[in-house]
Amino acid sequence: MNNKKKCYLCDGTGKFKKPKDEDAFEKAFDRYDQLSDFISMGEARERALNDVGFTLIACPMCGGSGEANQ
Ligand SMILES: [Zn+2]
User: Fold this and answer.
1) Is the dihedral of CA 20, 23, 28, 30 positive or negative?
2) What does the DSSP 8-state code read for residue 58?
3) Ligand 1 centroid – CA 16 distance (Å)
4) What is the average pLDDT across 35-54?
5) What's the burial of 8, exposed, middle or buried (CB within 10 Å: 0-12/13-18/19+)?
6) How far is the CA of 35 from the centre of ligand 1 (A)?
7) Can you give the C-alpha Rg of the chain in angstroms?
């Protein structure tokens, strides 16, 4: 039985993009989310992150391993 799952937060990369400004990120994300008929949630997040700026940190969900135990 394999109970290792790819971490959903970092998609198995072990890295997490942390917005430099959480408030600005929320606003930017909401703006892109209004377009969600056209773009996915993930894409809205990527665009908002690129607008606001981000730092790469070890994923807080899996601790950088990229694997989640469920
Ligand atoms: Zn992770």
Assistant:
1) positive
2) E
3) 7
4) 89
5) exposed
6) 27
7) 14
6 Cα distance to chain centroid: 14
CA of 37 to the centre of ligand 1 (A): 27
Which residues does 34 contact at the CB level (< 8 Å), separation at least 6? none
How far does residue 4's CA lie from ligand 1's centre (Å)?
A: 12
CA of 51 to the centre of ligand 1 (A): 23
Query: Comparing 4-8, 32-36, 55-59, which segment has the lowest mean pLDDT?
Result: 32-36
Task: Give dist(CA 23, CA 12) in Å, integer.
Answer: 26
